[in-house]
Design brief:
This protein is an alpha/beta fold. It contains 12 helices and 9 strands. Belongs to the UPF0065 (bug) family.
Length: about 350
């Protein structure tokens, strides 16, 4: 496992584009030209020509429960695939084991359908370090189709329990208290964000794991722990209702849905950037390359449309480039960067 650098290089080829740069590029190049370089051109190196229609139905297995961001976006692109392919699309939720159950199900699925996985930075980055042995190979068993969105975490507190309104005051209070604080996590990315926050700020805090974001949110509002790096889909309604307070964001950039909330990096911790990503892969064993090329193209068209962009933003998600190469870059980067955080935090399974 390679070591995690103290900061992430920022250059044009880096995977983190600010929203400003993204929109400027869209305006300059045209939405389709930028957002869809993964169509015929992206597969040209392999001389793969996408098919026009499918001869089998499509099965999408989601690594998380119904109602979350991954489930929502899977069903959105599933509808788009069905419209373009002329075949039915079945979406199934198989949560558990940090996405490993879903990933294994896709790899082992029979060939009577084209089998896709909607997951992200757990199955294709973090789990390589967390688990000693996986029942799938993230690279050899899957064909990357698209990174569909990025999702930073909101660092939230219960304002009735925590009176501090800024991260600096929160850290000073946490260090003064002396007693260990507690922070919730409902997924691998949120846990890594909390652990990285601990590592950089030197506060004393212990993790309280939850099986769902909704239950963690209920207990935060109930005063059961001190802070929570929460997914945006769950956090936004509670922030806007005033039930919780957002102190900071875990990503590299602010998000349009919370324009006044700074990033942790802005607040004196450069290099802090923990955002999960929601991506989609096909199983190599059951999905030929021309079919994967077509699916990648259709997914990109759906997300690049005005309706697709609006859908993502309303869910608190950040649009990203949707090329297979971009997804591969994310996999390689976060396998390396998150690996060190995981080891330092003692998150590896025995």
């Amino acid at each position: 496992m390679k070591q995690h650098p103290t900061s992430t290089p920022r250059h044009p080829a880096d995977v983190h584009w600010s929203r400003r740069h993204w929109l400027q590029a869209v305006a300059a190049a045209g939405l389709g030209a930028l957002a869809l370089p993964h169509s015929r051109r992206a597969w040209a190196a392999d001389a793969v020509e996408p098919v026009n229609r499918l001869d089998k139905p499509v099965r999408i297995i989601v690594a998380y429960g119904a109602g979350g961001a991954s489930d929502s976006i899977a069903r959105y692109v599933g509808d788009s695939i069905a419209q373009r392919s002329g075949k039915s699309v079945i979406v199934e939720n198989k949560p558990g084991a940090d996405g490993n159950i879903a990933a294994e199900a896709v790899v082992r699925a029979p060939g009577d359908s084209y089998n896709l996985l909607v997951s992200g930075s757990s199955t294709h980055a973090a789990n390589a370090t967390i688990y000693k042995k996986l029942g799938y190979n993230p690279t050899a068993d899957f064909t990357p189709l698209a990174n569909m969105a990025s999702t930073p975490y909101a660092m939230i507190v219960n304002p009735k329990r925590i009176t501090q309104t800024g991260v600096a005051d929160f850290i000073a209070w946490a260090k003064k208290e002396g007693q260990p604080l507690s922070f919730a996590s409902a997924n691998v990315g949120g846990r890594i964000a909390g652990e990285r926050f601990k590592q950089l700020t030197k506060i004393n805090a212990v993790n309280v794991p939850y099986k769902s974001s909704a239950q963690a949110m209920t207990d935060l509002i109930g005063g059961q722990f001190d802070f929570y790096f929460c997914d945006m889909l769950t956090a936004l309604p509670q922030i806007k209702a005033g039930h919780v307070r957002a102190l900071a964001l875990s990503g590299a950039e602010r998000v349009p849905s919370l324009p006044d909330v700074p990033t942790v990096a802005e607040l004196g911790y450069p290099g802090f950037d923990v955002s999960s990503w929601i991506a989609i892969w096909s199983a190599k064993a059951s999905t030929p390359a021309p079919v994967s090329a077509a699916l990648s193209q259709w997914i990109g068209e759906a997300l690049a449309s005005a309706a697709g962009q609006d859908f993502l933003v309303k869910k608190g998600l950040v649009p990203t480039p949707v090329t297979p190469d971009y997804l591969t870059m994310l996999e390689e980067r976060d396998t390396r960067l998150w690996g060190k955080i995981i080891i330092d935090a003692g998150m590896q399974q025995p």
